[in-house]
Protein 1
Amino acid sequence: MAQRRLREDALQASSTIPVSQQPAGAWTRFFLPSVSDLLFIALLFSLSCGSFAGRLLGDADIGWHIRNGEQILLTHAVTRTDSFSSTMSGRPWYAWEWLYDAAIAAIHHVAGLNGVVFFAALVVALPFTLVFRMILARGGDLLTTVLLLALSMGAAAIHLFARPHVLSWLFAIVWFALLDSWDASDGIDSDRQSRRLLWLPPLMMLWVNVHGGFLTGFILLPLYLASSLICYVSAPADEKPAWLRKLRWLASITGLALLATLVNPYGYKLHVHIYEYLSDRFLMNHIQEFASPNFHGAAEKCFAALLLITILVLASAQERPRISRLLVIVFAVGSGLYASRNIPVSSLLLTVLISPPLSRSLAAAGNRAQRSSAWRRFFSRWSSLGERMTSVQNSLTGHFWPGVTLAAGILLCLHGGRFGSAQIMDAQFPAKRFPVQSVNSITQHGIRDPVFCPDYWGGYVIYRLYPQNQVVVDDRHDLYGATFLKQYLKTEKGEPGWNELLDDKQVTVVLEPAGSPLANLLALTPGWKVAYEDNVGILFLRPRAGR
């Protein structure tokens, strides 16, 4: 009778719950999109079809990545010597992103630039969605998470291009998630998380053949090793064996991951090459993306806001962060301040680390008696709304609509970006940034000589004109080296002796931005004539020597 009375009371109570608050049915939970679903769809749509679509092709690098991938697919061999540059033709070239190049060339062959942009948009959307779900799983409330994630998205815009580095964003977050979950685990869960670390060596084997950002993995690993060592030294005697086992296990995984980096077409020579490249002070001081951030830009301001919030969270958090997480925060802050190209990964790491404690601090602020009633109500309502939205988010696990969106995007790319009579996608290199019409003029005039242009246009010229034309220089700075690039910069800046490189390499075709120092000098130099000119670029020609 008592059990029956309890069941009847429960049924009566459930019948009084408003329909909007009753648990959703299985089919509803499957078809209704969660906030993470909506975030993924919004990112994928805006980056591939919306206002940010043109930004992904705002860097010319993708041009030579596509053409190099085509060579790999055609020859069934990884590129080892350069063929795009007239000055470096036949010289050894470490195409360490060869796997990405081959994949993106295959996509380009099937779906053109629309496919390239859609793939890049997908790769960018994944780490942000993954970070969002990680934060909620760690106790972050939805509203706080969305606001911090918006800041990290704004910061990542500084390097938002369809290049292989976006895969490093994804790999870095997956790498961090595996390490951090293992570090925070104990008991039975510790064994399960330890087994998951076995994914790190295969992931590294893939990462090392996709992008040089694999070095991030070997910065995170020592941080967690250092954290485990500190915990082992400071732990009570009865806990030392457990920490020693964790330390030995992570050291073994680190060794396997190091061995995995050797599984690349160049072996240990790739490591030597990357070291020489990154230790070249001239290159590091003159390559823009390796420069420290200029905080006058919008993306840099978003990163600065994240830095300030991080400081406030660390100062006001009720609980001390784990040593490993504190070390990762220091790394994220330091790497982001060191080079602009590091800001996206730094922002993602900071967001996933500070959002949960910030959410808890805001919730606690609503309960503090010393706060004014207005502030208490604000923080209380903020936390309450965030908790309710998080609860709804966690109950919706079908992910039906992201799958539909992904399938629709693939079909759209395969049909030239058209849906019926409407052109939904039309990915092109921005005509305001790249010399589209000038390159058209080169083609129309049947010019076959190598083209001298700024290094940041080189990839676009390779994409448009190779193999009919080579370039004199492009932005594969590790290939050209400091000595050649010093001559190149002297020419670009119009410094004394600017014409030496052009004469030494017998350059007959120069494509320069309108108003650049070199363009102004060539306009006044006998023997050079303007073949085409618009607001973006000026095409100069001169006869070959002896012709």
Protein 2
Amino acid sequence: MRDKINIVTKFMARFMMLSGKSRILVGFLIYGIAVGSVSFWWWSISDNLFLLNMPGELIGYEVYDIAIRFLGDPFSSQAHYSIPWVLRIPQVFVPVSTLFWGAIGLGIQTAYIRSTRATRSRKF
């Protein structure tokens, strides 16, 4: 248990050493991985988890549907097994959540960088 705590504290120390610009993106990526993993592991236990990762799950179901339509056999009674494992429900929630929340973080980070550059250029 102590080793796990040390690993977490080392990770948090490294995260705090990141520049302010990259903390936003990394924070959103960590959130995307975390809620995607939670959605993956406990998707059939509780509906409340849907609220943590609503866009990731909705987009994940769409990716699953598109994968069956274009990569699998939509007319098969076992269409779920005709697509790659990573594109099946609930596995698809992890990459979709990571990409979605990472894109949100990248957008916020880009807006933050532009706003700080604009305020720096006004000072001089």
Protein 3
Amino acid sequence: MREKTVRTILRSLDDAFRYYGLPMLKQTQKDISRFMKLGKEPPESLMAGGATVGIVVAAEEQLRKMPEPSTEELKEFCSPTWILPHLRSLAFGYAKKLPKPPGGRPRTLSQQAAKQACREIGELLGDGVRLRDAQVRAALRHGVSFRTIQRAWQANRRARKPQEPAS
């Protein structure tokens, strides 16, 4: 398919995204590239737009492989009624390639907050406070359960424990 025809169909695809309330392609590409240049992870709201970019890239690859359409076929390609079912199939194909979300319950205490809580416990221990009391204070300060803080403390101890040399 000619480059001009591919661009026309992709413009129609972008219009369809706008029509169905999906993130627009050009703006999403600019926003994602801006985050990548800064070396930061794009926010979750922008990642939905990243899926849009992936769909368009996949569509572009497929269009380039297709023969040049007639005028009637081109009008059909550019109509939202043709784009929607194909967009859906492209989206499912792209979604299957995305990494699966981690299973289980989300963590109530981030790694950074857990490290901070362990630091606070260490400071309290240095001041002569009993371990259990220090853990209770840290749990109250961070708004999590005592057991969550205990797990963070145990994980911190295991991480700091020196490895025994293999014989």
